[in-house]
Amino acid sequence: MIQINRNMIKKQLKDYALITVSTFLIMIGVYFFKFPNNFTFGGVTGLSVVLGKVTPFSPSIINLIVNCLLLVLGFIFLGSDFALKTVYSSVLLSLGLPVFDYIYPLQHPLTNQPMLELIFAVALPAFGSAVLFNIGASSGGTDIIALILKKYTSVDIGRAVLLSDILVTASACLVFDIQTVLFSFLGLLTKSLVIDNVIESINLAKYFNIICSEPEVICDFIVHKLNRGATIFEAKGAYSHRHKYVVMTALRRPQAVLLRQFVKKVEPDAFILITNTSEIIGKGFHE
């Protein structure tokens, strides 16, 4: 029981460290690249850019106000224990942007290359968001509205969030020039692709089917050296009609390299099928 508690504490500390670093990346991308260029794609930060243009408040302050309101709605409709990791990230992001505003006020973009700045405005928040999504958290904002809709309605959440992002991005037409609007729509289209690819890359694993004659040695290596599980099937060669075994296992990429080398060493004639996969549910992967 003590060991389990220690493991849980270590996991929580690791998760919150990842949340802190990921949220910091989002802050850098939003404050230094999104806000100065008036990119409006997506969520509360995009809305903050638009409102910052038509109100006397900076986008950082508007982001803080809107996120605080959304957190209050979250506590009202979802309860005090709703998505603690999301609350932590949302508060960190909301308070961090005004701190950046105070420490390093920006009156204009860092460079005169809007495409370069768009890349960083998309890549940094998308990478941070992907890490957050991967550990069951988010940076708040419109995600809180999505959680409320999910609980109380049958609305398609994905479409609702996408529609809100499109409307926020389209609102740039009312206050910014056509170049800014086009860059914002390009950022909106690219953001989801980057997030999906980053999540897939983080979770990428190798699925093995090893057709061999001596499965015990291979399974012993998988279980005791790689600390993974494996399943053995009996099989029969269609051409040779020889009795064979199929060892099935899933490994992280560094472990996959070790297993491939080991199998070729102990049984060079083994037939190995290796498949990339990013959706593995079970102990040692996604619980």
Structure description:
This protein has 287 residues and is of the alpha+beta class. The protein folds into 2 domains: 2-202, no CATH class; 204-277, Alpha-Beta Plaits (2-Layer Sandwich), CATH 3.30.70.120. Helices cover 63% and strands 11% of the residues. It has helices spanning 2-34, 43-54, 59-78, 84-103, 114-134, 142-152, 157-170, 178-203, 215-225, 253-266, and strands spanning 205-212, 231-236, 243-252, 271-277. A 4-stranded antiparallel sheet has the order 2-3-1-4. It is elongated and about 80 Å long. The protein starts with a helix and ends in a 10-residue tail after the last strand. The model has no long low-confidence stretch (mean pLDDT 86).
How are the SSEs placed, and which strands pair?
Elements: H1 2-34, H2 43-54, H3 59-78, H4 84-103, H5 114-134, H6 142-152, H7 157-170, H8 178-203, E1 205-212, H9 215-225, E2 231-236, E3 243-252, H10 253-266, E4 271-277
Helix pairs in contact: 1-4, 1-5, 2-3, 2-7, 3-4, 3-6, 5-8, 6-7, 7-8, 9-10
Structure described in brief:
The chain has ten helices and four strands.
Low-pLDDT segments, ≥5 res? none
Which percent range fits the helix content?
55-70%
Number of strands: 4
Gap from first CA to last CA: 19 Å
Sheet with the most strands? Answer: 4 strands, antiparallel
List the defining traits of the structure above.
single chain, 287 residues, alpha+beta, Alpha-Beta Plaits, 2 domains, four-stranded antiparallel sheet, 63% helix, elongated
